Amino acid sequence: METTLQVTIDCADPRRLVAFWAEALGYVPEPPPGGHATWREHWVATGVPEEEFADGAGETPESVVDPAGVGPRVWFQQVPEAKAGKNRVHLDLKVGGGRGVPLEVRVERVRAKVERLVEAGAGVLRVVDEPGAGHYGVVLQDPEGNEFCVV
Predict the structure, then answer these.
(1) What is the pTM of this model?
(2) Phi and psi (nearest 5°) for 128?
(3) What are residue 91's DSSP bridge partners?
(4) Which of 64-86 are b and which e, b meaning 16 or more Cβ less than 10 Å from the residue's Cβ?
(5) What is the C-alpha to C-alpha distance for residues 112 and 66, in angstroms, rounded to an integer?
(6) What is the pLDDT along the chain (151 residues), one digit of tens a residue?
(7) C-alpha angle 75/138/125, rounded to 5°?
(8) Three-class SS string for the chain?
(9) Do residues 140 and 117 lie in contact, with contact meaning Cβ atoms separated by under 8 Å?
(10) Residue 23 and residue 25: Cα distance in Å, rounded?
């Protein structure tokens, strides 16, 4: 049996995070399958009872996908409880190019991506720039406080 990977992020407002993470990852909102107008319509057609839906669930895309079909699907699952504490798992957006790229170039790439993400609603938590370590990264939060790194 084949195993596929989906990253699921609990959140209060899937629409907000779909817009943010589509921008952050270069992904697109996932359209509903099978010619359905909405995900809710699709889910009902597959037998999911209406009483299982939160208000507005499935009316707009709640997931993003890699348009090239390479990266994992990311689903933003609406939950009633607020985020509590630090993430135990986080995403790393690797934009610098790795250690084979000069540090100055990696820093420029990371700063440019961080600037775009801040404009899209991210908040900067801290910059990781240890002299002599040959590493540069920035720890951010998405619009709902989920931590991630840009390196």
Answers:
(1) 0.88
(2) -105, 105
(3) 148
(4) bbeeeeeeeebbbebeeeebeee
(5) 21
(6) 888 899 999 999 999 999 999 999 999 999 998 889 999 899 899 999 888 887 788 888 999 999 999 999 999 998 888 888 888 889 999 999 998 999 999 999 999 999 999 999 999 999 999 878 889 999 999 999 999 999 9
(7) 80
(8) CCCCCEEEEEECCHHHHHHHHHHHHCCEECCCCCCCCCHHHHHHHCCCCHHHCCCCCCCCCCEEECCCCCCCEEEEEECCCCCCCCCCCCEEECCCCCCCCCHHHHHHHHHHHHHHHHHCCCEEEEEECCCCCCCCEEEEECCCCCEEEEC
(9) yes
(10) 6
Report d(CA 132, CA 71) in Å as an integer.
33
Decide: residue 133, CB within 10 A, 0-12 exposed, 13-18 middle, 19+ buried. Answer: exposed
Angle at 53 between CA 9 and CA 17, to 5 degrees: 30
Please give the Cα distance from 38 to 56 (Å, whole number): 11
What are the beta bridge partners of residue 10?
Answer: 77
Separation CA 76–CA 74 (nearest Å)? 7
